[in-house]
Amino acid sequence: MIRVLLADDQTMVRAGFRLILSAEPDIAVVGEAADGVEAVAAARRLRPDVTLMDIRMPRLDGISATRRLAGEEPPVTRVVVLTTFDVDSHVYDALRAGASGFLLKNAPPEELVQAIRLVADGGALLDPAVTRRVIEEFARSPAPGPVPPEVRGLTERELEVLHQVARGLSNAEIAATLVVSEATVKTHVARLLGKLGLRDRVQAVVYAYERGLVRPGAG
Questions:
Q1: Which residues pair with 33 in a beta bridge?
Q2: What φ, ψ does residue 20 adopt, rounded to 5°?
Q3: What long-range pairs does 117-124 form, CB within 8 A, spacing at least 24?
């Protein structure tokens, strides 16, 4: 059973999510929070597998709440941030704070359910089309500097895969681009995450842009 916490300041939004998730036999909503302070307290108390976290909430915003929960070791919960807009400057901040991905509030119910299952299973929710736009618009990429020591430990193919991941490509798209199997791409992703000490591909995207390995808008 996947245990979910709903954090949103709008009662109707929480009710809608609860209604959708109540129909799923493998998902249980274990709690709700109306602001960031409540979200942090509830997550620490209930230890949900996944928290759906609204970005804009009173008292403590979703980004700060995500940073507190994802910053602990091990993380209290895996967080999927919710936003009303597909291009939102705050989304990048949420990814940097440790969120495992983001989802539009107007996404179809099946996408919400799929997102929860994916993140609960250790995956990262990166919609390729939206992610490319968000990263290219808002990634505050530093000027290129010395290559971080850990990057030198990557093979040429692993570095190539990292570049593709940072541009928002899915494993299937990377496989088609590199003319290899999807399973091979998955192996490369797992190895590069291990070498760089990263939790998931969301962290890989942030890492690549912040280290100047990929520049916003680069082809």
A1: 7
A2: -65, -45
A3: 117/2, 117/26, 117/27, 119/50, 119/78, 119/80, 120/2, 120/49, 120/50, 120/78, 122/200, 123/200, 124/100, 124/200, 124/201, 124/202
Per residue in 22-55, pLDDT (tens digit) is: 999 999 999 999 999 999 999 999 999 999 999 8
What CA–CA distance (Å, rounded) separates 169 from 131? 9
CA angle 148, 127, 87 (to 5 degrees): 90
Same-domain pairing of 117 and 9:
yes
Same structural domain, 19 and 114: yes
Output the pTM of the full model.
Answer: 0.72
Output the domain CATH number for residue 155: 1.10.10.10
Predicted confidence at residue 185, as pLDDT, reads: 92
CATH number of the domain enclosing 54: 3.40.50.2300
List of residues 6+ apart from 155 with CB closer than 8 A: none
Q: Are residues 153 and 202 in the same domain?
A: yes
Do 117 and 205 fall into the same domain? no
Is 215 domain-assigned? no
Q: What is the pLDDT of residues 130-178, one digit of tens each?
A: 565 556 655 555 555 677 788 889 999 999 999 888 877 788 889 999 9
Q: Is 137 inside a domain boundary?
A: no
d(CA 180, CA 30) in angstroms, rounded, equals 42
